[in-house]
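Structure tokens please, single chain.
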Amino acid sequence: MKASAREKKTLYAGIVIAAAILIYYAATELSPSGGESLADKVAKQENLLRRQRELVGREDFYKKQIEDAENGLEKIQTRLLPGNNAGNAATELQRVIDGFAERSGVVIMNKSPRPERKVADSDSLTKISVQVGLDCLIEDLVEFLVAINNYDKFLKVEEITIRTQAATAQRQMVITRPLNMVISGYISVPPPEPAAKPGESLVQTTLRQGR
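Here you go.
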């Protein structure tokens, strides 16, 4: 049975509409739409996936970097004076210096703590210093300095003033008393909590400070 002219017109119209729909679909998906084509979208997703794979591939590297930094920090912490109180640390430092002097034959004529000072470029390190006046022979002074250098905590001789004179009878070089020296150690003091703005929670304050 042949299609009538009317049926043919209806069929042709349907074909035209279907073709128009396909053309519109292709135009919206494959041609720029909002400034971005399907190819651009695919390329963007591929780039994103590649970056994610690179990050995952470097995860072990970043973990190792963090672990090394943490281990280094722990080693530094073990060489600080105990506690985080400056007064107690100064007392401990004087006790340690007394021990060095007793073992090396150095006589401490006077000693006094200096005001603690924050270390530049550090949020937590504080320097603890003690000034001492010593009476000793050169040999005893060398032994005293060696004891400071070999101590398991990090100590530093920051200032030293030595004046000597010959002692003919003993054939030794005698240090004119007193020999003045400043010896320093370090403690870790947690930084103060950031001040909160009115109506701001502690979490918001911490985030604002970048901590």
